[in-house]
Write a structure and sequence with these properties.
With about 300 residues, this protein is an alpha/beta fold. The chain is about 40% helix and about 20% strand. The protein contains 13 helices and 9 strands. Helix 1 (about 10-25) packs antiparallel against helix 2 (about 30-40), helix 2 (about 30-40) packs antiparallel against helix 4 and helix 6 (about 105-120) packs parallel to helix 7.
């Protein structure tokens, strides 16, 4: 990618040269990453990159692409560079204010929707609490899929809440999703809620030790507080066990995501008489990534 300013580039030549450069650097999904960056830089749908492959890139477009490409090579997450990602088929604005929505979380949403459709009356309004909303992607996906949900989404971080608010406005859901700044460690004193039908959460579940070994693009760019509990990775499940019992309705649901190797440890936390283990949630890699518990106090 040296001396790009002095060479005439077409979409195809820039695509191929940039992809080869990333392959030499052992980047995953090199071709797809370049396609996304180029599409974003040229304001063209990805499919049109190939129908216009001989289009000459202007100097302005080239500079825009080069800036984004340089950020990618420096291990900035692709989603942050382009400012958005897709989650459950929805456009979600995405930047360093919050954790990047991941495909592994989509089965949590899907299982929640499936369970609601099977076990609740179709016209019954349900109250939902999301703990640790980040971008707001989980709440938004639920609200877009089911019209009978009224959601309160909480987070400790003001910046995350601002981003979630932008996404909620983008999807015209301000009347159905309410955002609140709440520290889960002072949950009861900061949030007056009761008779909740469903609590859903993708909490920070990476241990302090594991956090140090995360890939650079995660460790150096995504918000630390959204990734690790600065302990053993299980602290938020203990807290969810405690607070859920104070606000869930009888037979209310707790739906949680956890790490792919945490299933048994999380089960131990909820292995008491007030919880009935309903089902596991399996991700696309066939790993157990979550669980549904029913409150039976």
């Amino acid at each position: 990618m040296n001396s790009t300013e002095t060479k005439t580039w077409t979409i195809l030549s820039l695509l191929e040269t940039s992809t080869n450069y990333l392959l030499q650097k052992n980047f995953d999904d090199a071709r797809l990453s370049v396609e996304i960056l180029l599409s974003d830089s040229l304001k063209l749908p990805r499919i049109q990159l190939y129908s216009q492959f001989d289009k000459v890139i202007t100097q302005s477009e080239l500079l825009t692409f080069k800036k984004k490409f340089t950020s990618l090579v420096a291990n900035e997450p692709l989603q942050y560079i382009v400012g958005q990602t897709s989650f459950y088929g929805l456009q979600i604005l995405c930047d360093k204010r919050a954790l990047i929505p991941r495909p592994e979380t989509e089965p949590i949403v899907e299982k929640c929707i499936e369970y609601i459709k099977l076990h609740f009356p179709i016209n019954k309004q349900l109250s939902v609490l999301e703990v640790g909303t980040g971008t707001g992607c989980i709440s938004i996906a639920l609200a877009k899929s089911l019209s009978n949900l009224k959601i309160v989404a909480i987070d400790i971080d003001e910046h995350s809440l601002n981003l979630a608010n932008e996404n909620i406005k983008l999807h015209s859901l301000t009347d159905r999703i309410e955002l609140k700044k709440v520290d889960i460690n002072n949950f009861i004193s900061n949030l007056e809620l009761q008779d909740i039908d469903i609590i859903i959460s993708n909490p920070p579940y990476i241990s302090k030790e594991e956090y140090q070994n995360l890939p650079i693009h995660i460790h150096d760019h995504e918000p630390r507080h959204a990734l690790t509990d600065e302990n053993d990775g299980l602290q938020f499940y203990h807290k969810l066990n405690e607070i859920s019992q104070t606000i869930l309705k009888q037979n209310g649901l707790l739906i949680i995501e956890h790490g792919s190797e945490q299933s048994e440890k999380v089960k131990e936390i909820f292995s008491n008489e007030v919880w009935n283990y309903e089902s596991s949630i399996i991700d696309m890699s066939k790993h157990v990534r979550g669980a549904i518990y029913k409150f039976q106090n």
